[in-house]
Amino acid sequence: MNKPLRRVALAMMAMVLLLMANVTYVQVIQADDLRNGPGNGRTQRAEYAKQRGQIIAGGQSLANSVETGDELKFQRTYPNGPLYAPVTGFDSPTYGANGIERAMDTILNGSDDSLAFNRLSDMITGRAPAGGDVELTINPAMQKVAYDELTAKGFQGSVVALNPKTGEILSMVNSPSYDPNPLASHDNNAAAESWQQMENAEGSPMSNRSVSEIYPPGSTFKLITTAAALDSGYQPNSQVTDAASITLPNTSTPLPNYGGKTCKGSTLTEALAHSCNTAFAEIAGKVGADKMRETAAKFGFSTDLQIPMTVAKSDLGPMSDQASLYQSGIGQRDVRVTPMQNAMMAAAIANDGKLMKPQLVKSTRAPDMEVIDELKPEEMSQAVSANAANQISEMMLKSEQNTKGSGKISGIDIASKTGTAQHGDAADKPHGWYVAFAPAEDPKIAVAVIVENGGDEGAEATGGSISAPIGREVIRAGLQGGG
Amino acid sequence: MSLPGTSEGTGSSAVSQVNTRRGTELVLLVISAVIVTFAIMLVEISQENTITRQLFYYGAAYLALFGAAHFAVRKWAPYADPLILPLVALLNGLGLVMIHRIDIAKDTEYAVRQIAWLALSLVLFALVLAFIKDHRTLAKYSFTCGFVGLVLLALPGLLPSAISEVNGAKLWIKFGPLGQVQPSEFAKILLMIFFASFLVSKRELFTTAGRKFLNVELPRPRDLMPMLVAWVAAIGIGVLEKDLGTSLLFFGIVLVMLYIATERAIWVVLGLSLFALGAFLAFQTVTRVQSRVNVWLDPLHHEDGYQLKQALYGLGSGGIGGSGLGNGSPETVPFSNSDFIITSMGEELGLIGLIAIFMMYLLLMMRGLRSALAVRDSFGKLFGGGLSFTIALQLFVVAGGVTGLIPLTGLTAPFLAYGGSSLLANYILIAMLLRISDAARRPQTPAKPKPQQAPIAEAHTELVERPR
């Protein structure tokens, strides 16, 4: 019987070899396809298996993880969800992450190289592994005031406030906003339901207006035109046109001042203080498209910017002929900016022409609170000369004096510029802008406010009437709160 | 190493010098205890993040259990193959580690129960070695074994589903809260005893040639009866007990034993043809079988493919090196500690770990077969061959099923998977293999030397003294 026994041995070897060949195929050749297969939740489970770090601002926790009894061990919660949603973003098992949750993911989940030592010591000491914390530059008082001001009247819009000297982002607010909590739910159906709800909600609450939406800047763009002018030899007292209306070159289209009135003054300073369209259209025409583009770029237009979330590029459009150049000079036509870009513009003027890179992360910390990395202010460019910046600043002080709207702060000089941007809305309801910094002599806060579609004033709205009061309240909160 | 005193020792000095290699066995057992302890340590680090002294108690308890088994072998089967027990111990230990690891993840307590089953299994293992001094005595009870085996095999299929059905297969007998046993696990050994003995006694009949057809000698039709009976029985199990794995296992064992006994490949060809016919009929008529085959063809997209899909994802995420013990998520695969424990291993130990496990099984089977080759009696050869092949077939069917090589059927990986009946039966199987191996390696008692007698023609003429 030995011969068949030997053959059976060969058959058994062949069986085991077949098994080995098959697992080799599955685990080596098919492995990548399998990892991305439908319904494979392994990576996700690994991600939620340990405690994710906190997102902190001004000593408050904006996002933290609590232990749950279910399959994914930790769930993310957002105290004051809608208030901070544009900053924190969400971390959802169903929809992934965005905002700081995504941008700082490796720190928060503890996989960052800078946390390697902590991981090792966790293993040795038997401490539960956890992610690192991210501390933000956000000033909670300013964030709250900005959010309350925007939402009190049901405005759609955004507020961005910066520290002009360091580039720290003091507030970043959207209205309407959304609550990230239901998206972080471990119940896929519940998360999907609230996602659908927010997708269908009016005013697209999940869009981060501060950095992702681009708007026509209207008259606030005249600050860039002014900067270009001063850089091209204009002086604050240079004579400019005060005509009530001019005709765009090579067309018969008239370009009138606001309300069709003659400008109250014919110097550059007066033109900015009264926001005269005709003067700035002509200035843009004189300095030329290249100079306009160059100046805008120094203020941060057309640059790739991470704060660490990606900021949409602000842009001047093609400016293919003289007529469009004229229109661009007053922030119409194809010029588009993010609220962040407008705040950067104000901040650069406030900081002697020096544009600091906006940053949202103040520090990152290991789970044992030891600081891993701290914010280092970064200069992006010298947008205009310090001298020109101070001249623009003077003009903005005058502009503020001419700006109506409530909320003026006694004893503090604000330098500002309003904008009322037409955007082809059928009912002709303009976007109201307000960019400002204060105190003018030693700027601590630069702010940009946009209220979409005329806020509660419809076609009658101006930046001064709907946006300026919000901007001033934010500045007040910042200065009082020690910002 | 000195020979331990045994009740059967001949006491002759020639025998006492044979190296039984029991020391090697003990050293290998200690090594496997170290590996298992180290593995539990890794699980604790990644799952609980602490290392407690408890771990070393586990390791010590494991060593004590198998140490006891070792002494049972040393006492009652001193010449047995020294590799078999350590291989079984290591497989069993790794299985326990994985069951424990899944317990932590799912907050269950199967590892403790498995250890209790293991202790019971080792008691039975020792009893088998102690009471069955010679495997040939089993042949004397072959008809009893055959009858009891058949009853055990058929019983769950005939009992009402309420006390015999678990997860869709009617393979069990439930004793309320006490637990449940799978009698077919024991039936397979009993039936092998019967079959081995039956085939040995009727061996001549099966080798008698029938008519020739296309140059192949076919068996006589009446000799086909045992195989047809086995075939019908296998189909009966498949239909009544709704379990294809068990059905396949029985038919496969019968076929291989028939082949070993008759040395004629035609039996295998005929058997496989019958099997193919049965499989085709099952595929045509049973929706459960159709579903299994369709899942096998496209596991990632078939609606019933959830188990296999999760298992393959586990294997894929393990890759070559594995996620490391305690770092994967094998618990997301259904039955991750029993039917699918192979893929749990594949996920956390990777391709390297799985190949190592397959190699351990291969070694185990080869040592078993080697004993069958070396043993001197036909019954032992046939029985030993059957036992070894059982391990191979169980492994192939379950591992092939959960890794997508063949359609999925319900069997458990011997020693690795959670399951009391399987553990008990497989330890009895190993005890019998060790018994055969002991007989194979035992030095033969030298017969009394016969006086040399020269052929008459060449004999010297001797002067025979006349008695006074």
From TrEMBL, chain A:
GO BP: cell wall organization
Signal as UniProt keyword: yes
Penicillin-binding protein transpeptidase domain span: 157-475
Keywords recorded for this protein, A-Z: Glycosyltransferase, Signal, Transferase
InterPro entries in UniProt: Beta-lactam/transpept, Beta-lactam/transpept-like, PBP_dimer_sf, PBPA_dimer, PCN-bd_Tpept
Penicillin binding protein A dimerisation domain span: 52-134
Assigned GO CC terms: plasma membrane
Top-level EC class as recorded in UniProt: transferase
Keyword Glycosyltransferase: yes
E.C. no: 2.4.1.129
GO MF annotation list: glycosyltransferase activity; penicillin binding; peptidoglycan L,D-transpeptidase activity
Signal peptide stretch: 1-21
PANTHER family, A to Z: PENICILLIN-BINDING PROTEIN 4B, PEPTIDOGLYCAN D,D-TRANSPEPTIDASE
Protein name: Peptidoglycan glycosyltransferase
UniProtKB/TrEMBL annotation, chain B:
GO CC terms, sorted: cell division site; plasma membrane
InterPro entries: FtsW/RodA
Comp. bias (Low complexity): 443-457
Record-annotated membrane-spanning stretches: 26-43, 55-72, 84-102, 114-132, 144-163, 183-201, 222-240, 246-262, 267-286, 349-366, 387-409, 415-434
Region spans: Disordered: 443-468
GO biological process, one term: cell division
Membrane topology: Multi-pass membrane protein
One term of GO molecular function: lipid-linked peptidoglycan transporter activity
Major location (coarse): membrane
Key words of the record: Cell cycle, Cell division, Cell shape, Membrane, Transmembrane, Transmembrane helix
Compositionally biased intervals (Basic and acidic residues): 459-468
Location of this chain's protein in the cell: Membrane
Entry keyword annotation includes Membrane: yes
Pfam families: FTSW_RODA_SPOVE
Protein name in the entry: Cell division protein FtsW (Lipid II flippase)
Species name: Saccharopolyspora gloriosae
